[in-house]
# Entry
Amino acid sequence: MAAADRRGSSSPPPTTSSLPDAAATASSAYFPPELIPHIASRLTSLQDFFALRAACRAYRALLPPTAANLACQAPLLLVPHLASESHALFHPPLRRLHRFRLPNRLTADVHSLPRFHSLGCRLTFYGRGHDDFRIVHLLTGEQACLPNPPQNFANILISGDLVLTWNYMARNIHYCRLGAAVWRVASMGEEYFLEDMVCVNGTLYALVTESQDLAETYRLAVVNLSDSGDSVELALLGGNLDTRDVCLPEGSDLCLAVCRGELLLLNAVGFNPRMYDVFRWKAEEAKWMKISSIGGCTLFFEGFYFIGCLGPDHPGIRGDCLYFTERDGRWAEYSLVDKSFREFAAVDPNLVEPVIWVFPNMC
# Structure
């Protein structure tokens, strides 16, 4: 009996010995739910993010496409995809195309597309056969519809539920609230022309000038609009900005930008090679101060119109740089550190359609 007991104790059932290994395997494959959003926020590719999101229903519920979950996503370029007569998202750091399907109302022959404008992870489009103005979230498909603006425009800005459009060196601003049935027109009167406009923490700032033909002095102003009136109230800040003080070449432009809640001014000081100066608005002194660094951040422009800011130390892009899209389908990078300027072809060197910045982490 003792021998039998000894034999039994020395030969345990196989299932007993395998249980610890199985438990260890299950434990190593398990991620606490609270870690999943943290893991997603470190991913730099949309393909990886959606692959993680598709792993199971629990992950999908934990990972809506929000700014926090997409925090490290690289900026993308929306480019025409001639093979599919649609669009693709181009990943500049990886030089990779992501196949992408626009909402049905946006699809069309790439040679007769509506006009697009970037609003972070959203796009506006209108015109060319479309009877309304739409704002579309590219990752969720959510759309907001407005009537078409009463005239073509060069720039667009959203502040809260207010959509504003204007043209370079115009006296009027067109604006409409989301859900409204009509656009309103507000005039700045006969004294000033509008050069540019941005929104900083809910406040609208405009760069205005008294001369349309050859502007030599500019003023910064806070813009106030009324839903009941048809005029623009400008609260002027500081004194005149003399273009001779910032070495502005004849015929070039100034551009407003925003970096981490601070108002910036961009000045093109050379075209061959292209070079830029950056100024920060010092509210306490009511004047512009030239700076050589934007704290490791990166500014993005559609042509010469500010689109967004990333950083500092955002994965896949250079800090203290300015990124531009060009009219011929190219994009460019200017470094404030070494003053270098480089141009790149997004996909096809022969592409003539403009490319559009898309920022997954600006939802």
Q: What stands out?
A: Helices lie at 2-10, 14-28, 36-41, 46-53, 57-62.
